[in-house]
Every structure is written in C-alpha cells, then in structure tokens.
Amino acid sequence: MSIETETYSALDAPEYAPAQFVRWFRDVAPYVHTMRGKTFVVGFGGDLVQEERLNALIQDLSLLTALGVRLVLVFGSLPQVNEQLRLKGYDFQFDTGMEPTSAIALECCKEAAGELRLDIEAAFSQGLPNTPMSNAQIHVISGNFVTAQPIGVIDGIDYKHTGKVRKFDITSIHKAISLGAVVLLGPIGFSPTGEAFNIAMEELATHAAIALKADKLVFLNQSTVLRDDNGHIITEIARAEAEKILKEKSIDPHFANLLKHTVKAVRCGVKRAHIIPHNLDGSLLLEYFTHDGIGTMVVEDTLDDLRPATMDDIGAILSLIEPLEADGTLVPRGRHIIERDVEKFTVLEHDGIIYGCVSLIPYTNEQMAEMACLIVHPDWQSAGEGELLLKHTESKARTMGIKKLFVLTTRTSHWFMNRGFIQGTLDDLPKEKQINYNRSRNSLIFIKNL
Ligand SMILES: CC(C)(COP(=O)(O)OP(=O)(O)OC[C@H]1O[C@@H](n2cnc3c(N)ncnc32)[C@H](O)[C@@H]1OP(=O)(O)O)[C@@H](O)C(=O)NCCC(=O)NCCS
C-alpha cells in the first residue's frame, strides 16, 4: 500500500455539514465563555419528575457544570405530596405550597422530598450513558443548608408546619459549588429547635438566589409563557414592567407566582431571572445558548437609561463618535448630519452621562432599516449595554413595521453574527442605500430578519 500526501478537498469532509457545525460552535462560544464561574440557581416542581423529564434535565445541568457553572438545584414536590395525601385517604390537596401544612401533610412532604432527593441523586450518579455527558462524575451535595421558621398565624389562619426561610448556610454552599459539586435543596427546612417546615420551592429558590448573589435564577415551569398583544413570546422584560403586569393583568396564577418571585429576586440584586417551559427537550440549553432564548427573562429596569436623543445630546454623541471616526471604525459623518438626524438616535444615559448611542434609519418602502452609530463608551463595554441598544433598536424597528434590520461594519462583524445577523450583499440593501454605499470602505453588510 502506498501512502501519499495530497491537498485536502471538500470531498474529504465528513458527511454531516461541517460548515454548519463550525458555525454553530462559533455561535455558542461566547455563551460558553461567559458561563465559567457563574452561579445559577435552578428551581423546578415535582411535576417535571412526574412527567419523566428528570433525566433530560440532569443531562443539560451536567453540561452546564462541565462548562464551569456553579449550580444550586431546588426542587418542589407538590404532586408527589398530593399523591401521598390521596393514598392515605385525605381530601386536602396543595395548590401553591403556601397553604397551611398539617402534621399529616408534613409527614407526606417529608416522604415525598426524601424520595425525590434520592431520585435526583440517582439521576446524577448514573454515568449518563449514551449522552454527551457519558462518564461525567458529578457530585451532588444535599444537607441542612436551610434554617426555617414558621410562617405563623396570618389573618387568623394558623399556617402550622408551613415555613419560610430564615437563613442559608451560605459559606458551606459556596464551598461546595466552588469545588464543582451541585448543591441540592429540597422543600423542607429545619428550625434551630429541630422542627421541620414545608417551604415552597419558589420561596426557597428565590431566597437562595438572593443570598448567594446568583447570576441567574431559573424556574422551569410546565408550559406557560408570557406573550405580548401580537402573540409573540416576551423574551425579556424589565422588572418594573413585570410588576405592572402582575398588578394590572390577569395571568395564569401559577405563572404569576413564578413571575412574582423572579421580580423579587431581580429587585434584590439577582442579575437575571428566567421562567422557561420544561416541556421542550433542551429548553435550558435553548434559553442560554441562543440569543433570544425561549422563555421570559426578567432584568432590572436598565431600560430607564435608554431615551430618544435631543438636540442637547449632540455634543455627547459627537464625542462618542469622533474617536471611532478617527480610527476608521465608523464612517465620518460630521456634526450637521448628526444634527439633522438627531431624532433617529437613542442614547444611553446614566447620572447625566451619555455613554452609548445608536441610530435607526428606516427605508419604509423596502420595510428595512439601517442600524448605525452603535456605540458603547469603552469604560462601559462588555456589560451588556451594546446588547441592550440592539434589543431596543430591534423592538423600535418592529413597531415601525420593519421586517429587516441591516448594519454596515468593518470591524464588528462577529459581534453582529453572534446576535443573529447574517452576511448579505449590496443587492440585499434598499436601492437608495446601494447608491450611497461607500465602495472604498468596502464595509461588510449584515442583515437580521425581525
Ligand atoms: C460593538 C459594541 C457596541 C458592543 O458594546 P458592548 O456594550 O461591549 O456589548 P455587549 O456587552 O453587549 O457585548 C460584549 C461582548 O462583545 C464582544 N465584542 C466587542 N466588540 C466586538 C467585536 N468587534 N467583535 C466581536 N466581539 C466583540 C466583547 O468581547 C464582549 O464579549 P464578552 O462578554 O464575551 O467579553 C462596542 O464594542 C463598541 O462601541 N464598539 C465600537 C463601535 C463599533 O464598532 N460599533 C459597531 C459599528 S457598526
């Protein structure tokens, strides 16, 4: 047999589409990078286990821990407790977990929590055969991390063994998750006198996220999502807006309960809180590794910093633009163009300082718009502000009936590609823009369908 060296040809490529694979890998790389060392608290109800979705969830969670995410897992057990009550011949059933817990119901809570804990530990221990996490060894640590106290008597109703969180053993939890173990918290806490209390999963997860100063709190819920008037899923919502919805709209009570807890977490400093459906395989991965996600994410009301520009902002906009014009990142525009187009600009302001801007130039005939002058001051970069400007511009364009957003860029192509833009050609642009295209700059064209 003779062995020769020859040029690699496209015919040698494996059968699966390599370009697609490479593109996918590059697309998720930024998310992978941002996850290392972040703390996530993930809460789910016993219904997920009942629907036999536990193993799929554990696979996805194992993948996150392999990427360096520090994980605290909080489980609920209402359907299992209700089942126990039914089997024992009791009529009473829990709905939210915040109902009074009798001594009998507490026994059912303990049994259900113990059984679920073992199921979850077993799922993490099975070596995950035939999965991407085959042979991964993940340690699960559960214990008496939660000190509870009784809710007490409210409006004359004695809540008996229903409790709330008094404090967490934060030091021990931090120690465990920093060693790569998953901390598992069940819906039972103990008072310093050794008394057990039934604690709602939502309450426990929210408290844990706040106490741990988590980067994310995630609730997996059955299937409900939040939609706007046009039927689109609201993928991101400011905390203040979510509070308004809770006050003014009539939404599914279980979803409202989760939303209330995400709002509380974000108000108390958790950076992002998500509610995602669990009935879609890989929903956790889709939420993290795709730009828009699939559920609803609540964030602090940073949108307050965004406002339309006025003539008073021209000096500040120019000082953001000028260094980038000087180094060739942006095409020189000149003061008179900015003055003429100022109403097309949005600025980011904090404490009176303009630290970012973007403009949206519509081409209504073609239902297209150009996003231009997207800038975040270097001192504020890499904190998600560019993303905020992009999201704002996208939703502004959508409300104007725009179907495609385009950008011309010489140095920022990957930033746009990571956010769903696809490279286009001059022919894809509106006619007027094609005529004005500056060929000597040879800017790349990126387009996103809205
Ligand atoms: C592009 C820009 C607006 C992004 O603003 P930002 O607030 O830093 O954006 P975000 O925080 O949402 O995203 C930051 C991420 O994008 C990455 N990023 C920044 N510039 C990038 C570029 N040119 N190419 C690829 N990725 C880039 C950062 O490394 C960071 O990744 P990390 O979080 O993994 O570290 C900002 O870098 C900027 O003002 N650049 C100069 C002006 C410019 O090029 N504008 C676009 C011209 S059309």
TrEMBL record:
Q: In this protein, which residues make up the domain named N-acetyltransferase?
A: 304-450
Record flagged with keyword Amino-acid biosynthesis:
yes
Cross-referenced InterPro entries, in alphabetical order? AceGlu_kinase-like_sf, Acyl_CoA_acyltransferase, Asp/Glu/Uridylate_kinase, GNAT_dom, NAGS_kin, NH2A_AcTrfase
* GO molecular function term, any single one: L-glutamate N-acetyltransferase activity
Cellular component aspect of the GO annotation: cytoplasm
Q: Which domain of life is it from?
A: Bacteria
Family matches, as SUPFAM superfamilies: Acyl-CoA N-acyltransferases (Nat) (SSF55729), Carbamate kinase-like (SSF53633)
Q: Where in the cell is it found?
A: Cytoplasm
Keywords, sorted A to Z:
Acyltransferase, Amino-acid biosynthesis, Arginine biosynthesis, Cytoplasm, Transferase
Identify the metabolic or biological route this protein is part of: Amino-acid biosynthesis; L-arginine biosynthesis; N(2)-acetyl-L-ornithine from L-glutamate: step 1/4
Its GO biological process annotations read: L-arginine biosynthetic process
Catalyzes what?
A: L-glutamate + acetyl-CoA = N-acetyl-L-glutamate + CoA + H(+)
Q: EC number(s) for this protein?
A: 2.3.1.1
Gene3D superfamilies under this entry? Answer: 3.40.630.30, Acetylglutamate kinase-like
Please share what else the UniProt entry notes about this protein: In bacteria which possess the bifunctional enzyme ornithine acetyltransferase/N-acetylglutamate synthase (ArgJ), ArgA fulfills an anaplerotic role.
Check the record and name the PANTHER family matching this protein: AMINO-ACID ACETYLTRANSFERASE, AMINO-ACID ACETYLTRANSFERASE NAGS1, CHLOROPLASTIC-RELATED
Concerning its family, UniProt says: Belongs to the acetyltransferase family. ArgA subfamily.
Provide the protein name.
Amino-acid acetyltransferase
